[in-house]
Design a protein that fits this description.
Elements lengths: L2 H24 L5 E3 L6 E4 L3 E5 L4 E5 L1 E3 L2 E12 L2 E17 L2 E6 L2 H6 L5 E5 L10 E8 L9 E6 L3 E4 L12 E4 L2 H13 L21 E7 L3 E7 L7 H9 L6 E3 L9
Antiparallel strand pairs: 1-2, 1-9, 2-3, 3-4, 5-6, 6-7, 7-8, 8-9, 10-11, 10-14, 11-12, 12-13, 13-16, 14-15
C-alpha cells in the first residue's frame, strides 16, 4: 500500500469516526434524562453535559466516541489546610433501549466513583408524565436568597384564578395582585405538573451539593379532590425545572391588576 492510499485510508477512518460521533451526539443534544427515582440526571446541550447524581454535580464539555460518553473536571481536595487540584475523567457507555430510555453503564474508575451501581436506566424527562393528577390548587412560596431574588408567594386554583404578592413596576400597588390564567396557560400549568412527577418528591433527596444561596421553595399541591401534598426543598429535580421557572416568572406572563382585598393564601 503506497503512501497516498495510506493517507486516504486514515482520512476515511477519521471521517467515519467523526460521523459516528456527530450522529450519536445529535440524537442526544438538548435531551434531558432522569432515573425513575429522580436522583440521577443528564442534560445535554450542544456543547456541554450537566450530570447530577447523589454523589456528584457538574456541567462540562463532553465527547462521544461511538456510544461512549466522556467528560472530565478538576475537583478541589482539602489537604493540610490547602486546596489541591485533582483531575477526574468519567466514561460511560450509553445504550439506547428505546427512543425514550437509555441504559447507562459506568466503565472507568472515575465514573464508578460518582455512580456506584453497575447500570442505570434513564428515561426521557419530556415523556415522564403522571396523568393521574387532577389539579385543584397550588400554593408556591420562594424565599429570598443572597442574589436579590424576590420573596414570592403565589396561589393558582383549578379555574385559573391567580393571586400573587410579587411586585411589578407597572402596577403601583401595596397589596396583592390578581389575575386569571387563559385556558391555554392553565392547560400548560397542568401539563408541567404532570411532567414534574411531583408526587415522587416525598421520598426525593436533595443533592449534597446544593448551594447555601439557593432559596427555600415551598409547594402545597391540592389534587384529586381531597388529597394534599406539602413539599419543602432548596433544589428541584430536572423534571420540575419547567414548573419552577413558570411559577417564578408567571407575574410577567399573566394580565394582573391590584386586588381590592388581600387574599388569604390557603396553605
Amino acid at each position: 500500500m503506497n503512501l497516498s492510499k495510506i493517507n486516504i485510508f486514515i482520512i476515511l477512518i477519521w471521517f467515519l469516526t467523526i460521523s459516528s460521533l456527530n450522529t450519536y451526539a445529535q440524537t442526544l443534544d438538548s435531551s434531558r434524562w432522569v432515573t425513575s427515582d429522580l436522583v440521577n440526571e443528564i442534560s445535554f446541550t450542544k456543547n456541554t453535559v450537566l450530570f447530577k447524581s447523589a454523589r456528584y454535580k457538574g456541567n462540562h464539555p463532553y465527547m462521544f466516541i461511538n456510544d461512549t460518553l466522556s467528560f472530565s473536571d478538576v475537583n478541589p481536595i482539602p489537604k493540610i489546610g490547602l486546596m489541591e487540584q485533582s483531575k477526574f475523567s468519567y466514561q460511560f457507555r450509553m445504550n439506547k433501549l428505546s427512543k425514550d430510555s437509555i441504559l447507562l453503564l459506568p466503565i472507568n474508575a472515575g465514573a464508578r466513583r460518582i455512580v456506584p451501581q453497575n447500570q442505570y436506566i434513564f428515561l426521557n424527562a419530556n415523556t415522564t408524565i403522571d396523568t393521574s393528577i387532577k389539579f385543584n390548587r397550588l400554593v408556591f412560596h420562594s424565599s429570598t436568597s443572597g442574589y436579590n431574588q424576590q420573596n414570592i408567594l403565589i396561589e393558582i386554583d383549578s379555574v385559573g384564578n391567580y393571586y400573587s404578592t410579587q411586585k411589578r413596576k407597572d402596577i403601583p400597588n401595596k397589596g396583592h395582585l390578581y389575575g386569571k390564567l387563559k385556558e391555554i396557560q392553565l392547560a400548560s400549568l397542568v401539563s408541567m405538573l404532570q411532567k414534574s412527577q411531583i408526587r415522587k418528591m416525598q421520598d426525593w433527596k436533595e443533592s449534597m451539593f446544593t448551594s447555601s444561596h439557593t432559596p427555600t421553595r415551598l409547594f402545597t399541591l391540592y389534587y384529586n379532590d381531597g388529597q394534599k401534598l406539602d413539599l419543602m426543598m432548596h433544589e428541584t429535580p430536572l423534571v420540575m425545572n419547567d414548573l419552577l421557572e413558570y411559577l417564578i416568572n408567571s407575574n410577567h406572563s399573566i394580565a394582573l391588576k391590584e386586588s381590592k382585598d388581600n387574599h388569604v393564601f390557603g396553605w
